[in-house]
Amino acid sequence: MIDVQNLTKRFGDTTAVENLSFEVGPGRVTGFLGPNGAGKTTTMRIVLGLDSPSSGAATVAGSAYRDLHDPMRTVGALLAAGHVHPGRSARDHLRMLAAVGGVGDSRVDAVLSTVGLADAASQRTGAFSLGMLQRLGIAAALLGDPPILILDEPVNGLDTDGIRWVRSLLRTFADEGRTVLLSSHVMSEMELIADHLVVIGAGRLLADEPLRDFIDRHSGHSVRVASAADVALGARLRERGAHVDVDGGGLLVRGLDARTIGGISVSAEIPLTELIPIRKTLEDVYTGLVEEHGRHRAKTEVY
Ligand SMILES: Nc1ncnc2c1ncn2[C@@H]1O[C@H](COP(=O)(O)OP(=O)(O)OP(=O)(O)O)[C@@H](O)[C@H]1O
């Protein structure tokens, strides 16, 4: 469990995080979303004891990071790939980290194989691609076999296979009852990986709910309908408060769900030939929410 309570962080005049509270629970993948500069990295750094808060607190498994008895076996983190000595091999890099964290050498080859770098273990990391460095960063996070993982943009630089691999790794991790907090700008990927979302804007909490609820709540009802008598059906639907547009060979109906539209067509004795609820994607919903938040901020800053 990761617990962030009333967290505020200021850098001079910049408030990076403002009175932010949320919990990241076990057994699910929690996506951490927000536009550039929203405060995600700052929050993750504070959770990992790399920055101190101006006020409020963050704990991991019940303790502040600096008070953890065995940090590497409690939480694994990937904040930015690439901080690796280029002359060192992948295996030596991980051995050094394992020694510092008090983790046995046997884990080094185990994690190299988990991340698909077993064959490159002796190569200098200076010759690694961005994708290989990401895999090495994830290997380092897994060294202590921790129950909690915090990953900032883990799919950066990965190809399709690599992205699929991260997805299945995190799914397995969550299904084992572990805790995963993950940030990504790739919404299509986040939609496939995350069970739960924490969304922030300008350092403040905008949403903290299951991904499905987030999409449903912000989607509104939108249904494509076609029938034997679109004009008559459209009139009935408008009477019931729907917004109806003619859409190709049918109608696009907003404001009523598919079940209600079906009921109206039955009582009007107008057979339907199409009834398709339209779901928004995470990207649609997220972009809308961030734009709305930006407009609201601009307004409150002007007045
Ligand atoms: N060390 C620092 N000194 C001064 N300002 C900082 C520092 N770290 C972050 N900031 C500022 O705090 C705000 C939040 O930054 P942060 O990196 O946490 O956002 P983010 O959500 O991770 O953004 P991105 O998605 O671009 O990585 C930004 O305005 C940033 O410029």
TrEMBL record:
It holds the Pfam family ABC_tran. Keywords: ATP-binding, Nucleotide-binding, Transport. The keyword Translocase does not apply. InterPro entries: AAA+_ATPase, ABC_transporter-like_ATP-bd, ABC_transporter-like_CS, P-loop_NTPase. Residues 2-227 form the ABC transporter domain. The keyword Calcium does not apply. GO terms for molecular function: ATP binding. PANTHER family: ABC TRANSPORTER, ATP-BINDING PROTEIN (PTHR43335:SF4). Belongs to the ABC transporter superfamily. This is ATP-binding cassette domain-containing protein. It comes from Rhodococcus artemisiae.
